[in-house]
Q: What sequence folds into this?
């Protein structure tokens, strides 16, 4: 409703409306500055272990944060069961109910953290709860390398928030476009932020800042305080990829890549991605030189304490990026994906971003 009134005023008195908009931006910025670090009430909607960890890294010491985890998402139940709630920071609570409109309607939150900004459940909760209300500050959390696509969508003038390769029904597309427009509107008044540990290429950073977004960074400071178990360099860790399971790269080429590592370096400890199939892992386990280590906890928690002389091998992945942040003295050997591996099921932008592991983050100063 407020947006409609603003549009009507623009038609009748553009100069007056422009001044009003500028005043609104100033007031919002002042209010945000006053609120930060002063006992905010916040909620985080997360659907993967990485999103969960990112929410913990975003939490401010005096902020009351409710994490609503979607336990039905693949791999989340085992993760939540393995995660010790004593590891939660002070003032952080965990519930397994995911995003629901009722929660947002009955509880006032100063800030909303979004793990998957393309989630249909999240879109429904935001659209229904804030159809005729102002949305609070929104913070985008890391959701793997797909986060780059989300930020690109939000820097565009229009377009729905959808994942690469995702095809939606007309009603879902309308909702995804509505939420995207609302978030773009938040950016114009300084209420949209991206809190990330990922490297951010200068063009993407510039585009997001230009539309009014803010970028803040972390290096998994909270995660590094947790008493998680380490590993040993002799384990020869290899990070599993979901690309073959998702049909983006040729499964036989991927299997041959794992075999080449074994032939060149000896026995390996293979850490499967949560979307890899049981059939593929069963085939891999037939090789006596392969030790498969299924994880309840994210690999970032399992490999955080590797000694400096370790080497982790991986295809381009978020885990490779985050482990490089966590373990700057550990070698992360990332194999660029050959062009002939791709099945044609992914857009060029995704292939380029996956292989762009050498990109360095800008200096925020």
A:
């Amino acid at each position: 409703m407020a947006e409609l009134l603003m549009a009507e005023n623009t038609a009748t008195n553009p100069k007056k409306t422009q001044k009003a908009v500028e005043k609104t931006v100033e007031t919002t910025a002042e209010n945000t500055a006053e609120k930060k670090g002063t006992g905010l009430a916040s909620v985080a909607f997360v659907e993967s272990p990485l999103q969960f960890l990112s929410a913990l890294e975003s939490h401010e010491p005096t902020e009351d944060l409710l994490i609503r985890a979607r336990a039905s998402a693949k791999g989340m139940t085992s993760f939540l069961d393995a995660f010790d709630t004593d590891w939660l920071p002070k003032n952080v609570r965990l519930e397994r109910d995911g995003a629901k409109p009722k929660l947002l309607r009955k509880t006032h939150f100063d800030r909303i953290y979004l793990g998957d900004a393309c989630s249909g459940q999240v879109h429904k909760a935001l659209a229904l709860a804030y159809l005729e209300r102002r949305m609070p500050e929104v913070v985008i959390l890391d959701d793997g390398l797909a986060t780059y696509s989300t930020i690109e969508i939000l820097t565009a003038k229009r377009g729905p928030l959808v994942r690469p390769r995702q095809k939606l029904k007309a009603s879902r597309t309308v909702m995804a476009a509505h939420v995207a427009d609302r978030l773009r509107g938040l950016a114009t008044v300084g209420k949209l932020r991206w809190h990330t540990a990922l490297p951010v290429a200068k063009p993407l950073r510039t585009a997001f800042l230009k539309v009014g977004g803010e970028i803040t960074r972390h290096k998994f400071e909270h995660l590094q305080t947790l008493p998680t178990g380490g590993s040993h360099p002799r384990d020869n860790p290899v990070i599993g990829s979901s690309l073959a399971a998702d049909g983006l790269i040729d499964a036989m080429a991927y299997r041959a890549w794992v075999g080449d590592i074994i032939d060149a370096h000896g026995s390996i400890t293979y850490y499967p991605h949560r979307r890899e199939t049981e059939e593929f892992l069963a085939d891999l386990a037939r090789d006596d030189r392969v030790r498969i280590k299924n994880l309840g906890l994210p690999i970032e928690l399992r490999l955080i304490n590797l000694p400096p002389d370790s080497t982790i091998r991986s295809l381009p992945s978020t885990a490779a990026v985050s482990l490089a942040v966590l373990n700057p003295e550990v070698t992360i050997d990332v194999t660029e994906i050959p062009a002939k591996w791709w099945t044609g099921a992914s857009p060029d932008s995704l292939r380029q971003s996956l292989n762009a592991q050498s990109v360095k983050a800008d200096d925020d100063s």
About this structure: DSSP finds 14 helices and twelve strands in the chain. Residues 14-35 form the longest helix (22 residues). Confidence is low (pLDDT under 50) at residues 1-37, 358-365. The two ends are 39 Å apart (CA to CA).
